[in-house]
């Protein structure tokens, strides 16, 4: 599943290896480090993939203070959807991507 939304690019890949390859590909096409994000359903997996791929995690800068605080009280699925929408995707797109993450896949998002 690929998508482009208002200068945001998203791609779902099957595993961490493919996520690292996708991040490298995005860098080679001109995306900056600060604008490439990795997201997996498991937080620790997100951390590991982001470290290996030299990519970012979606944080307070992207979400804003309110959503970051609200995420402390949300389910993981709700938190993931909030992170995805904070980067310019619709609720419907966030829901579809979150379902892919539930299946163990990895989401890469890049912004211009």
Characterise the protein shown here.
It contains six helices and four strands. The protein has 112 residues and is of the alpha+beta class. It has one domain. The longest helix has 13 residues. The model has no long low-confidence stretch (mean pLDDT 88).
Summarize the main sheet: 4 strands, antiparallel
One letter per element, helices H and strands E, the order comes to EEHEHHHHHE
Number of helices: 6
Strand content: 15-25%
Domain count: the total is: 1
Mean pLDDT: 88
How helical, in percent, are the residues?
40-55%
How are the strands of the largest sheet arranged? 1-2-4-3
**Shape type:** globular
- Count of individual beta strands: 4
State the distance separating the first and last CA atoms.
19 Å
Secondary-structure-based class equals alpha+beta
The gyration radius over C-alpha positions equals 13 Å
Poorly predicted tracts of residues: none
């Amino acid at each position: 599943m690929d998508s482009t939304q208002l200068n945001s690019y998203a791609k779902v890949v099957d595993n961490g290896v493919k996520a690292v390859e996708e991040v490298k590909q995005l860098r080679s096409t001109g995306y900056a480090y600060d604008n490439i994000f990795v997201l997996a359903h498991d937080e620790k997996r997100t951390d590991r993939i982001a470290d290996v791929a030299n990519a970012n995690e979606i944080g307070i800068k992207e979400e804003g203070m309110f959503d970051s605080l609200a995420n402390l009280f949300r389910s993981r699925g709700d938190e993931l959807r909030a992170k995805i929408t904070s980067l310019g995707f619709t609720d419907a797109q966030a829901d579809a991507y979150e379902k892919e993450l539930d299946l163990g896949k990895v989401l890469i998002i890049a912004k211009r």
